[in-house]
Amino acid sequence: MTPPTVDLGHIITNAFGEHTLSGVNGEAFSRLGSTAFYKQTFAEESWAADQLSLIVGTDCGLMPKFLLEQELADGARYLFIELPDVLERLKAENLLPKEIPGRLQYVTYDQWIETAKGNFQIIDFFYLNSVRQQRSIAAMDNLHPGYLELWTLMTNEMQQLRTQVVMETGNQIFMQRCLENIAENRHPANLLKGAFKGQTAILLAGGPSLPAAFPYIMENRDKLIVMAVSRIAKNLISTGITPDIIFSIDPHEIAFFASREMLDLPPETLFINMYHVQPRLLGQWRGRSLYMGSRLPWKSDLNPEQPIYPGITVSHQALGTAIDMGFEQILLSGVDLCFSREGLTHAKGELESKLGPFMDETLYQVETNCGWKAETRNDFFSAIPGLAMLAQLAQERGLKVINPAPDAVKIEHIEHRSWEEVTLTPLPQPFLQTLEQVLPLDDRASRLADYKVIAKEISAARNEVQKILKLADEALACNLRLFGRKGKKGPDYSAKVRMDEIEKILDEKHADFSKFVKRWGIGLFLKLTRTDKERDWTDEEVEETGRGYYEAYRECAKQVIKMLNETLRRIQSRVDEERPKHNFKPLIKQWLEDKQPGRLEVLLQHAGMRREDVHEKVRPQFAPLDAGFTEQQTTTDSVHTKTINSYSAPTLARNRLRSLFQAKNLEMLKRFLEAVQNSINEERDHYIALCEGMIAELEERFDEAKACYSRVSHKQLIEEARSRHVSLLLSAGDIENSLPLLEALAALNPSRFPHYAQMLGLTGRTDASVEAFEFYLKMAPKDLGTRFKYAEMLKNAQRTEASKAQFEEILKLDEAYQPALNGLQELAV
Question: Which fold has domain 643-828?
Fold first, then answer.
């Protein structure tokens, strides 16, 4: 990163003898001092043991000094990432603590990943879910604008690194879905390699620009292969567009409800899925399908050689596949990776768009194809480099990736041309004709042959894992003998010899499947990871670790065997689907267990049958399937709906509006207002009132602003509205009229009592102020900041003894609390 050139200012020395740079921390610590400020601002878990803290900014050296004075927690590490110009100045001014232990260090952005992966063992801490990222006070206040960019880049790289760790160590749900999909994943996507040379494809995703492509597609349907991500199936169907290829990769159940309308597409559409796709989509798909990735979650000759594309989204995998298919031009639509000007994340017609603008706070801005700066969110931002790499790959092969959307993010190697500037030629032959030429036959005989091969592979794998389970049981018994837990007085060292032999057998004779078992239950094994590897182990720790290791082996082996048994039953069910005469009772049982009521239509499609061809006495058995299919396709109470609704929660809207207001971003507030006005969000009226109030306040229409704030009554928004109302009254010097609102705020949120109490004190209502302070401090007796304000109020009210008592109470809790010491000195004068 190249931070902006900023005047770091002069050195400020506060009343507590602490030195900061005026352009970095300003007067942040002038009133309380850094120690009291940190204790008031950060929870104790911020500095917990066995945790890696990545901290942006050092507060001119005060934060590392604070940590050193508190004594570093056991097993904890602290890596400070500082701006280069600030770090250089701090070193020149000798503001950084000089003697620091090895587990506390200062680096710049360019050095942080290498340092984190090295001495700071970030990978191990990721395994333990013990990486904490936080901002110093300087980074929160952002007086130096470089901190915002530093935090943004850090957050992005952190998430990418975390994702990489998950991908490298394996994830159980991917392996589970792989086995659940094993019978359907018969043909790999690489069969299409080079099959569409010289042709043009259009890849459709769910971004705001999607609808702009619809007229173009309809006008040029005979010149385009239409590829789409599964989540926009409903939008395409309602528009009358049938894609040639539909893509899906997500293994989670939310993906099914986001994409379930794809099951309404005709079987002529080709489904290209990642091997770990949601089984409810693949198992109920009536048409042909091809899989990306491996077929089996262990090393096997049945795994085809397929490319691995950069990026983890469905758009990445779809674009990579399109490039390998040989398309001369690949047009993108809905691949925006940024918000619309109204703050919408998805195309009209998508649920996210109906609920209004993106509510959560975002730190990211990107340049669009037409040059304006659009907001985006972290997952969109993280997807940009992968798409650039894929577009570069296409370019190197003489292919073009083009995004005609002016408001889509500008990405290197992706051309921007208007729709009118794109040249198209008619397809040489229909899409289905090409498929017939390049794909193997998919009939009853080929399916049965494949089921036989894959069942043999799964059975062999089960035998291997059963041997691993037996070895793990033996190793556990040896571990007990080694430490004299089997009735012997002393350790049995022959047990150690046998344990070494078992480990060698696992690593050599059963290498592939022992790795698979470990990856299956990686979480259990990672619990044994230690971040203090330099410390000597006690015998008890060695025994406990050995027992934990083989218990993890045993538990994971049992889980894998159970999963393999379920897989074999599912394969047998697929074999039974191919029989000339069907026994529907066990088939229906399997389909309902798998939550695949639409599997009946797959059977009928494969058999070339209609429902009427099934005996009338059998057809009533289909009733639970029909009811289940209708329910899955129509329910509005799905995990997908709940998740999307949570993105527009009132608390997020409040924080978003507060952030825009504090930044005085009138333009974005007005866009937010427009998007909410056009939404179906249940809380839209409250959002509108709060937003209109903030706009009026920034435009200095204060009476209108107060009227707008008075209209807000939602319990999660009313506090913000009343706070703004109070602020307007206090700015006008109208303390009297602010008191009822302050009292109401305190009733809503007890943490507001200190402010209410202060205002009572300022208006001479000392007794009422004392009552409010005392009420609050009974709830939060260790809130030293509020107790200090209470003492100051009493001092100003000439209640010297009461003030002295409060200062002394503070010092009982923290004898080094400098503001209280200063207060006592002032009283003594």
Answer: 1.25.40
